[in-house]
Give the backbone structure.
Amino acid sequence: MSLSRPDAAHPISESADEVGTGRVRQLYRDHSSSLVRQLTRKTGCGDLARDVAHETFLGLLRMAPEGLERIRQPEAYLWRVSTRLLGKWGTSKALRERGTPTLEVIADPLVDQVATLEQRDTLRRLEHAVEQMKPRTREIFLAHRVDGLSYTEIAERMGLSVKGVEKQMSKAIAKIDRLLDRG
């Protein structure tokens, strides 16, 4: 994916457009490889993961600079956008592969809609739970669950002991369980 500067011949001002492009470049450098790794794990297909990540960053390029500046948790935001894109891709691919409608085809979307609504509700509650965490706990939780870092890697990165990371993860999981009504 090329996030290069627009042609100098373009009558684009260097103000907002360049600031937005610079922010996207930085997000790409910081998060693209981990996003592709996560998507590859989720889909089992590296090519699909790269395509979805590419589309995710293209979407960022289309955003107004003010919108980019409002992104406070880039990893979570990128994951959310790419997961939505993956869902749209799966739905459109499934519809293209289906031939003539049958009762099974008609029933599937209804089941999918209910499952989608349940997943959205769960995701919304999970996002709320993560937002309610103390900043350090949230950072540790996201580093482990989103970035895939081990407790040892997180401990080294944050200057904590592994036991300290374990304690913060326990707090995070307990918070999520309480807010998702699991415990």
Observations:
- The helical segments are 16-43, 46-62, 65-69, 74-97, 103-132, 135-145, 151-158, 162-179.
- The chain has two domains: 1-73, 98-183.
- Residues 103-132 form the longest helix (30 residues).
- The chain has eight helices and no strands.
